[in-house]
Amino acid sequence: MLHKLHGQPDSYEKKSAPFELRHNEPEMLTPHRSKYRMGKTLGAGTYGIVREAEGPEGKVAVKIILKKNVKGNEQMVYDELEMLQKMHHPHIVRFHDWFESRVRLFEISDYVHY
Fold first, then answer.
1. Which terminus of the chain is more exposed, N or C, with fewer CB under 10 A?
2. For the chain, what is the HEC assignment?
3. Does a structural domain hold residue 11?
4. What does the alpha-carbon distance between residue 24 and residue 78 come to, in Å, rounded to a whole number?
5. Cα separation of 94 and 111, whole Å?
6. Domain with 100 in it
7. What radius of gyration do the chain's Cα atoms show?
8. CA distance 96 to 55
9. What confidence tier does 13 reach under pLDDT thresholds 50, 70, 90?
10. Do the beta carbons of residue 52 and residue 64 sit within 8 Å?
11. CB atoms within 10 A of CB 67
């Protein structure tokens, strides 16, 4: 189930996943930690990296955004997530889910091999 981004109820629980934990990066351990097995890095950009992963739905792409890289532009990221949740077209990469940790935001979408 995808998350409602604006006006979520008080009972809304943020997901978190401590991928690639470092000793100086305390994050809560959640069931999402084991949900995706991270693979190689596919690319990097201004805000983060994209890695392949193996998940319950098969091979997926995981866009990992460092929150410090989008500081001041957080709304841009949440707007992107909201838009991706609404997109359903056979010629557009399918968005699966998203979750966040204290320092990162993870977007899960189809893995497209070309």
1. C
2. CCCCCCCCCCCCCCCCCCCCCCCCCCCCCCHHHHCCEEEEEEEECCCEEEEEEEECCEEEEEEEEEHHHHCCCHHHHHHHHHHHHHCCCCCCCCEEEEEECCCEEEEEEECCCC
3. no
4. 26
5. 9
6. 31-110
7. 14
8. 11
9. very low
10. no
11. 16
Domain count, the chain: 1
The CATH number of residue 75's host domain is 3.30.200.20
For residues 93 and 69, the answer to whether their CB atoms sit within 8 Å is no
Report yes or no on 4 lying in a domain: no
User: What span, in angstroms and rounded, lies between the C-alpha atoms of 16 and 114?
Assistant: 30
Looking at residue 102, its pLDDT comes to 87
Q: How many Cβ atoms from other residues are within 10 Å of residue 2's Cβ? A: 13
Provide the 10 A C-beta neighbour count for residue 66.
13
This prediction's pTM:
0.69
Residue 7 lies in a domain: no
Q: What is the pLDDT of residue 21?
A: 39
